[in-house]
Amino acid sequence: SMIKGCAGRLLDLVTNIMEMAKSEKLDSAGAAEAICKQPVNIMDIVDEVIGMTEMAVDKNGRHLVGSNVIMVNNMCTGKLPMVIGDSYKITQLLYNLVTNAAKFTPSGSIQLSAREDEGRGLLEIDVCDTGKGIAPEALKKIFEPFQQEENKDSRSFQGIG
Question: CA 88, CA 145: separation in Å to the nearest integer?
């Protein structure tokens, strides 16, 4: 099932790149894009993302999660509600966050947790790591498509930003 999940993520990555190009085209034309909405179990997605991240390797065949890093799933501490969303996009987003944390955390931990904000109808997910962090001046830039923080450490890793 892990191979099937990884193959699905690869297909999703290609699909996401194509969708991003399509979205930019639609944005320039002023059209709206349809959003897939279905019930999503966040705990299942987190389990899948942690498993994929623990097995992930970089372009040199080294594991992304170093031997001095502990992955901690704090999602089990309480019952989380099903959410409505696109499971593929949620998985890709969480996978991107967790693998980025793994790339820049040479030792320590990467912790995933969530909490429900019933008053606002939201589920907040945290990915916390003991890595070096992101420079304050880079925070705005990194959320732009295909952008990365510019420093000597970020150039050591593959990725499209």
Answer: 18
